[in-house]
Sequence to fold (147 residues):
Amino acid sequence: MRERLYLRSPRTVAAARQFTRDTLRAWDAHDRLDDVLLCVSELATNALRYGVPPGRGYLLRLFGFEDATVRAEVHDSGPGLSRITDRPHGRGLTLVQALADEWGVLARTPGKVVWCEFRNAPDCRNQPGGTRARGDRIRRAAPGRSP
Fold:
């Protein structure tokens, strides 16, 4: 597992993307690189727009599991749970749903964790923190609903 905390600034989206690119390259997980990068960009942008109050930041966590799955999580401290909407400018989670194998939202105090997973990312399974905890269930979020 690797993680990085970002302050509330639009410039951090590019930094989060670069951190993800560097991490996946170090893990030799190139198969779904573009999909993961786009989804991290969308989740970071959503966190900045809707989930990071002034003076706060968001946390990006990346996991490489033994079954060659990569998981990206964006933790924020804002209210509410992320969901797919019909707003003209709110298509980020629609992209995440289309590209990721699984995605969802978990409540936390304060805020939430929005996550997505990508299968078939070879060679990331030997990374520290790359073992899925027993009982850690994966569930795709239904459109317009949080898991």
Summary: The chain has one domain: 2-118. Confidence is low (pLDDT under 50) at residues 130-147. The beta strands are 2-7, 57-64, 70-76, 102-107, 112-118.
